[in-house]
Amino acid sequence: MPLKHAIPAAAILLATLVPPDAGAIDASGPGPDLKALQQRIDQWLDGYNDGDVARMMDVFSIDFTDEIQGTPGELDKARVTQAFRALFAKYHTQIDGVTDELRASGDMAFDRGHYTLTLTPKAGGATITQQGRFLEVWKREGGTWRVQHIVDMHDPAPAP
Amino acid sequence: MTRIKRRLILVLDLGITGLLAWSAARAGTLTSGNPQDVSAVQQRIAQWTEGYNAADVPKLGDVFSPDFSFEQQGTPPLPKEAVLKGYTALFAKYDSHIEVDTRELRVSGDMAYDRGSYIATSTPKGAAAGSKPLVQKGRFLEVWKRSGGVWLTQRFININDPAE
Predict the structure, then answer these.
(1) In this structure, what CATH number is given to the domain that contains residue A7?
(2) What chain B residue is nearest to A26 in terms of C-alpha separation?
(3) Does the residue A132 lie in any domain?
(4) Which of A16, A85, A120, A150 has the highest count of CB atoms within 10 angstroms of its CB?
């Protein structure tokens, strides 16, 4: 798939980093670690809402990979960075996400959940809505939690 | 059987085939963590593979945690019971073979993950013997937990590449 077509999908995928709802999330692990992970998720969200790609990408490890249903292979951090820049240049975005599960042990963690993303073209045109689910794994390096790998599945598009 | 029903059964079969992605970590797999823990996870992977090759559903199912879930596009998350039923149906209909590339296996504390890609071939048997084998390629990420000293797969997410 040409990169120009893969870019929105990658950006949609990474928008799945959403703050866990403390009332609904299934969580386990040391409280301070879970709190630290939530802060990193918040950092990503704040960066996303501000269109601050550098702030967002700080959440990802150097060896970060992004795998998406329908896209062959995997995207590395550099390509994902490009994807976000392209996304923010073209769309106003909104995410409604649910982190269903967050667990940490040692220097490893994972979270999974689902999301609904709305992309409104800045130049006008139909709004794009995308739903999906994700699973991602985190590692702690130098005391900082970073997302190392994420797999995203877009739900099939609704019938017109 | 209607065409739609046959299609649904095929989708289920191929989805379960995605679980075949468990395979002993090969040379070249990127690993980190306590070597004893890495080895223990690899042994559990081998148990799953042996169970699969022997069509031994209890043996392979023993690798899954009670709260195991399997996710892929187009279906809701499947619990352990549904997945084991899927295996039973798969082994009744197909002779299967899988080639897996486990690219990465990491362990920390009581958690681990591995990820990679696979090519699964399901050859119809019984009344359908002689039909063209089904080939499914895909990628996966799975998370393990250690419970009572035993490593169990807790979460599995599968990406099916377009069927051939």
Answers:
(1) 3.10.450.50
(2) B67
(3) yes
(4) A150
Residue A34 lies in a domain: yes
DSSP state of A71: S
Cβ distance A69 to B159 less than 8 Å, yes or no, reads yes
CATH number of B3-160: 3.10.450.50
Structural domain range at position A101 = 3-153
Nearest to B140 by CA among A61, A140, A2, A67: A67
**CB-closest option in A72, A104, A137 to B113:** A137
Contact (CB<8Å) A135/B109: no
What is the value of ipTM here, to two decimals?
0.83
Structurally, how many domains does chain A consist of? 1
- The pTM is what? 0.84
Please give the C-alpha separations between residue B51 and each of A60, A76, B79, B98, in angstroms, as whole numbers: 37, 35, 19, 13
Which candidate from B77, B104, B108 shows the least CB-CB separation from A108?
Answer: B108
Q: Decide if A158 is inside a domain.
A: no
